[in-house]
Each structure stands twice: as structure tokens, then as C-alpha cells.
Amino acid sequence: MVEREGKKGQPTILYIFFAMLALLLALLLGAFVPMARQADAAVPVGSIPASEQPLVGRSGANHDSEFPMGRIPARSQPPPQQQPPEGPNGGTATPTATPSCGLAWRVFDHPNPGAGNNFLFGVAVVSANDIWAVGDYFDGAGAGYTLTEHWDGTQWTVVPSPNPPGQSTKLFYGVAVVSTNDVWAVGRYFTQSGNRTLIEHWDGTAWSIVSSPNAGASSYLWDVSVVSSSDVWAVGSYIQNNTGYTLTEHW
What we know:
The protein is α+β, with helices and mostly antiparallel strands. Helices cover 16% and strands 37% of the residues. A hairpin with a 2-residue loop joins strand 6 (182-191) and strand 7 (194-202). A 4-stranded antiparallel beta sheet has the order 1-2-3-4, with no helix packed on it.
């Protein structure tokens, strides 16, 4: 009778054992989940876990896969820009005889008509075969004159430009183009009573002086820009009572 009761008690002990084991596992899992959540919260949004970061600064035979400190991985670099085809002299190929200077500035020959100083202050481009440069030159006696030079795709040549009569110094500072037959140059010329604005126009055949207003004791025009043949702006300054003021003129 005792043996039967003992045999019947064995399953009860097993049930108690598995119940306690299940309770222990539940307690362990309950403690682990908050810890994992805290670890996730400690990593900022958008950051890369250390296990996923690339190796940096490590030496080895495979340098392509292990880039040095500060170098951008190849997959992150922008694609190389395609360069235009090279011409026979190493510069970019063009359908004209414009000098090929490649990726460097080079000095190119210009005529110097004056026995004294020669200056160029402005340049404007119609096309590769049609470029204007303006400035002034001085003769041996020290008198200054307007200077306009033109590039025709082969060489620079001096193109005559008129000068106000009887004045000692006349010069251009700026030039702008509307088309090959519509070019403007601005500057100033000196008189005994002060400087005066100077504007000239190229009509495809010759330069001619265009009347322009003045303000103050002396007026200068430093630059010019075009919107169209009937919309041209020139800017400069004028002096009044030893103070300089802005000057804007419109065609």
C-alpha cells in the first residue's frame, strides 16, 4: 500500500520540478529584455555599430579593401568627370584656330601700338573667332589714347577707335558685346575741368563716339553690360566736393 502511494507521488515531484524551471526561465527572460532595450537606446539614430564599421588604418597586402584614415571608400566617391577630347596640342579640341592652352593660363602675343605704356583693361567674347579687348596706350610724349584690339581666330590686331579732340588722356575700362556688329566700350577722357565719361560703339565696320551724360566735377565709367541691343548698362563713379558717388547710365 505504501509502495503504490510512493509510485503515485513521483509524477507530482516531476511536475513541481518543471514548473519551477519554467518560472526560472521566465524570470531570466524578464530581466534580459529591459537590458537589451537600454542597449538599443544607447546607440544614436543613424550611427553605425562598431561591428559594421570598416577597418581603418590597418596595414596589409590588400590595400584596396582597407583604406587609410580619412580616405573615402571607392563606392562613396563621385564618378570621375569626363574630359572633353584633346586637340593636337594637348588642349580641348575646337573647330577654330583659337590657341589651345589646356588647363593652364599662358601669355599670348598682343600688339603694342604705343611708344610708351600699353594697357588692356576689359575683354568680351562674341565667339571663338570674334573677341574684343580694350584699354589705352601712350605715345612718347605721354599722351594717352583709346585702344581696341580684335581676335579673328588667328591673331590680335589693333582696330582704330576715335578719341575726343584736344584731350591729353582717353582710355577704355570695359567692353560688352551684343553681337558681332553690336559692341560697346566705356571709359573716360581727361579735360582741364575734370574727367568725362566716354562711350563708343562698334557697328561691324567702325567705332564711333556716342554722347553720354556726366555728373559732378569728374565722371568715370568702369564697366558695361548688355541685355540686348536696346538695353545696355554702364556703371562708374563721379566726384563732387572731394567725395565719390556711384554712377549708372542706361541705353
